[in-house]
Write a structure and sequence with these properties.
The complex is a heterodimer. Chain A is α/β, with parallel strands linked by helices. Helix content of chain A is about 30%, strand content about 30%. Chain B is built from 16 helices and 16 strands. Chain B starts with about 20 loop residues before the first helix and ends with a helix. The chains are: A alpha/beta, B alpha/beta. At the A-B interface, helix 1, strand 6, strand 13, helix 8 and helix 9 of A face strand 5 and helix 11 of B. Chain A: One of its GO terms (molecular function) is flavin adenine dinucleotide binding. Chain A: Its cofactor is [2Fe-2S] cluster.
Chain lengths: ~280, ~475
């Protein structure tokens, strides 16, 4: 169960697993996530499902090694298994009534845009995709996404690929150029999603964002993942993870994500030095 | 042979149970109450009058034959006493520790009319622990099934209701699978009740006993998400018991509730108990409390949270409760333990907002004092704000323990399941039958947050009804 049948290193710290999980693969829809645990004393972390193959009974997970759990996860090899894997959790993306969409993937968020774009293609929804990354080496899933979208734009922070700048630069250009969309879908770092929300607000374009807060159980039990949506408390795990971006209190989400920063560093430091060195965490 | 006349021990008070001293135990997570020695148990067992018409049994939701097992303890037949209990109670080591005996069996004890009732709970715990100490597993042998099962039943949730229902069905000859959403079975027994009240090794022991009956426990399975109710029936399960509990935290809906440092008791207790956050960084899940902590609420969960917070090394823990001590729903014993440990109770106090510093962390909680007026619908006196009583309690952490609501995951994804007005599953009290054929429910998902033993009672009644349903094929 939960056996890794394919492992790919997409960038030095970004890895892809295709893992056997027939039951999850059968049910998961774009936008949903799983929660996993790597070892017996490990924490539970949520990861969005990047792709799935119902016939093969596999799901694809893409993650960046940013903390102890993801570093340990990245150490697993093909043939090894993820200790605990539970899902699919959260609500699927709502594509109802959409005809033309612009999807924005920032960094690792592009992994989540992939199944959404595929699903929209299947439903005959026309999609323009904007992928943003720090540099050319970190542009993810370009080839996988290309066949399913109408137009694909790439931006990098350093200009090593595509437009030098932010995804919002391209979006603004598209909107100013008279492109009309029913909705924008943005998945990526919080600051990027916040920027997309601010821009789309000016243009009156509805936007859906995907939240990735700290979670424990992922079934609505702890309330750790709560956020304020238009003045109301919502749980990202059961009410989300996707929300109307114009109603999300981003500053609060960003602040709550920082809550355990010190402890996360401590956990990183508890890793063996051989591992830490690779992530410049050895002190 | 002449039977020697039995002389009961007429001491008015229970034989005291050894406990860790408050000043010692607030620095560790080890169990507070240490349990009777065999000599203490026999002495306490001698306090039982062996009534011809015992009233204590009526007070027990699972009808443990109380005088019988106590007599066996008195005769130093401890393992037999244990076997007598498990005829009707699957989880004696747990019940002996966490049941509110004072409002159940012990409340009806004749000895309670002049002095303290017999310490039934402590004796139950003693018998279970004694049997476990001999075999390491509670003395139950693995049942090898050579016969054809009577049928196939799915149980959703491995808390007290689910474990009990599964056990009774397995004993009755059914093939039972329990589906648990978390990575460890036990439900509230592992994520909610702290180690110092219910050691997780005790829960593990009881779960192992359930497995020995042939029950298959599948963890990481969120029914309603990975498999629907219809799919369970399609897989050949003839009946489904839903015991998914009241797991959703209620928040106060006051300003500042999403500040860093505010948690639901569920989150706090899950971090501490299930994820073993008190052993961070040996365990990866952190739990963070400030120098001073306020726990809002007056139930057992509030006591558990406050006492956990204390053990994490805080200087000061307050319990903020809006009515008086009299109205507090927590067990007296727990309140007593909390007070002994130095937790400060602020009665008739209600939070109005949580105050944050410049970085969005809690720095205090503004409260008002309450006056109690005439009783409300719940029978408790209604609190009314005392004008001009606003004040700030200086704390860095706020834990909200004002209640939980039923987990809607199964209900939302199961068409045809009637709900109660508070979002639980509507089920017949005597049988657990829901509005959908073949589906039974019991425990907190039906009643709202209640006790371990009430959930067990519901699981037991449902097991009986499921057996009847599958045998007769009659859905009434």
């Amino acid at each position: 169960m939960n056996k890794i049948i394919k492992k790919r290193v997409l960038a030095p710290t970004i890895k892809l697993f295709e893992a056997e999980s027939p039951l999850i693969a059968k049910k998961v829809e774009p936008g949903q996530f799983v929660i996993l645990r790597v070892h017996k004393k490990g924490e539970r972390i949520p990861l969005t499902v990047a792709d799935y193959d119902r016939e093969r009974g596999t799901i694809t997970l893409v993650f960046e090694e940013v903390g102890k759990t993801t570093v340990l996860l990245g150490q697993l090899k093909e043939g090894e298994s993820i200790l605990d894997l539970v899902g699919p959790l959260g609500k699927p993306t709502d594509f109802e009534g959409l005809k033309k969409v612009v999807a924005l993937g920032g960094g690792l968020g592009t992994a989540l845009v992939l199944p959404q774009v595929k699903e929209m293609y299947k439903r005959g929804i026309r999609v323009d995709v904007i992928i943003g990354a720090r540099n050319a080496a970190l542009v993810l899933f370009e080839e996988e996404i290309r066949p399913y979208c109408a137009n694909l734009y790439i931006t990098t922070d350093d200009g090593s690929r595509g437009h030098k700048g932010l995804v919002t630069d391209i979006l603004k250009k598209l909107l100013d150029g008279g492109n009309e969309y029913d909705r924008a879908i943005a998945v990526g770092p919080l600051v990027m999603m916040k920027a997309v929300c601010e821009l789309t607000k000016d243009y009156g374009l509805p936007v859906t964002v995907s939240m990735d807060p700290i979670m424990i159980d992922g079934t609505g039990m702890c309330g750790c993942c709560r956020l304020t949506l238009g003045g109301e408390i919502k749980f990202a795990c059961v009410d989300g993870p996707e929300f109307d971006g114009h109603l999300v209190d981003f500053d609060e989400v960003i602040r709550r994500k920082e809550m355990y920063r010190k402890e996360e560093k401590m956990a990183m430091n508890s890793l063996p030095c051989s591992l830490k060195e690779r992530y410049n965490a050895c002190t | 042979m002449p039977v020697p006349k039995r002389k009961p021990n007429m001491a008015r008070k229970k034989v005291p149970m050894p406990e860790q001293e408050p000043q010692v135990r607030i620095r560790n997570f080890a169990e507070v109450a240490l349990g009777y020695t065999p000599a203490q148990a026999v002495e306490e067992a001698r306090r039982c009058l062996q009534c011809k018409e015992p009233r204590c049994i009526q007070g027990c939701p699972v009808n443990v034959p109380i005088p019988d097992f106590i007599k066996l303890i008195e005769e130093e037949r401890f393992v037999e006493a244990y076997k007598k209990i498990v005829e009707t109670n699957n989880l004696p080591a747990i019940c002996g520790r966490v049941c509110p005996q004072e409002i159940q069996c012990e409340r009806y004890c004749l000895r309670g009319e002049k002095g303290e009732p017999v310490a039934i709970g402590r004796l139950e715990r003693f018998a279970a622990d004694y049997a476990a100490s001999l075999s390491g597993s509670g003395g139950r042998k693995r049942i090898r099934r050579s016969f054809k099962p009577k049928g196939k039943v799915a149980v959703v949730g491995s808390g007290p209701a689910g474990l009990t229902c599964a056990t009774d069905l397995a004993k009755a000859g059914y093939e039972v699978t329990i589906f648990e959403a978390l990575h460890t079975p036990g439900g509230v027994l592992v994520y909610g009740i702290p180690e110092f009240r219910l050691p997780k090794s005790v829960v593990q022991r009881e779960v192992d006993n359930v497995k020995k009956l042939g029950v298959d426990i599948q963890t990481n399975m969120v029914i309603g998400k990975v498999l629907s109710m219809d799919e369970l029936f399609a897989q050949g399960y003839q009946a489904v018991f839903v015991g998914t509990g009241a797991g959703l935290p209620v928040f106060m809906r006051i300003p500042g509730e999403n500040l860093n440092g505010v948690m639901s008791a569920n989150e706090f207790l899950t971090r501490v108990n299930l994820m073993k956050g008190y052993r961070f960084p040996e365990y990866d899940t952190p739990v963070k409390v400030g120098r001073r902590v306020a726990v809002v609420g007056g139930g057992n969960v509030a006591m558990d949270a406050a006492r956990c917070a204390l053990r994490l090394g805080t200087e000061k823990v307050y319990i903020i409760y809006r009515r008086s001590e009299e109205e507090m729903p927590a067990r007296r014993e727990e309140v007593h333990h909390a007070k002994e440990e130095g937790i400060e109770f602020r009665f008739c106090t209600s939070p109005v907002r949580i105050l944050g510093d410049d970085h969005g962390w809690v720095k205090g909680m503004e409260c008002v004092e309450m006056e109690l007026r005439e009783p409300d619908a719940s029978g408790r006196r209604r609190p009314v704000v005392k004008p001009g009583s606003e004040h700030v309690v200086n704390v860095e952490t706020v834990i909200i323990a004002i209640g939980t609501t039923p987990n809607p995951l199964v209900a939302r994804t199961t068409p045809g399941l009637a709900l109660t007005e508070f979002g639980g599953i509507a089920a017949d009290e005597a049988t657990g039958q829901t509005s959908r054929e073949g589906v039974f429910a019991g425990g907190d998902i039906v009643t709202g947050a209640a006790t371990v033993i009430l959930a067990m009672g519901a699981g037991k009644r449902a097991a009986k009804a499921i057996d009847e349903y599958i045998t007769t094929k009659q859905w009434r």
